[in-house]
Design brief:
Radius of gyration: 18 Å
Structural class: mainly alpha
Largest sheet: none
Strand content: under 5%
Number of helices: 5
Oligomer: single chain
Shape: elongated
Low-confidence stretches: none
Number of strands: 0
């Protein structure tokens, strides 16, 4: 599984309501901190990092969140946007890889 796939799966679970913002915060931090950074592009890494920042900004304390923190609804909305961005990046990266591989094929094979 690609590194980005773990992050997009987590983000989609939050966006769809299968995971709470609190669960997201608990899972995202170690996933990001202990990831092996096998991202196919810098953009994928940035999207994963953005998920980490959102998880870090979630307020799960009592009362209203401080100005620099997010509510559960805000987390869900931001994570949904990042999930779409990350899924798109993964698709684009895979297309670039296939194109590069097709260009690297031996031209003699395609003429046979």
């Amino acid at each position: 599984m690609r590194e980005a796939e773990s992050f997009v799966s987590l983000a989609e679970a939050v966006a769809e309501g299968r995971l709470s913002a609190r669960e997201f915060k608990v899972l995202c931090r170690p996933l990001f901190q202990f990831s092996h950074c096998h991202f196919l592009s810098r953009e994928e890494f940035v999207a994963a990092r953005d998920l980490f920042f959102v998880s870090d900004e979630y307020w799960d304390g009592a009362g209203d969140p401080p100005p620099d923190h997010l509510t559960a609804a805000e987390v869900r909305a931001k994570v949904a946007e990042i999930a779409v961005r990350l899924r798109t990046l993964m698709t684009e990266d895979e297309q670039r890889i296939r194109l590069r591989e097709s260009r690297a094929e031996d031209p003699g094979e395609s003429l046979a």
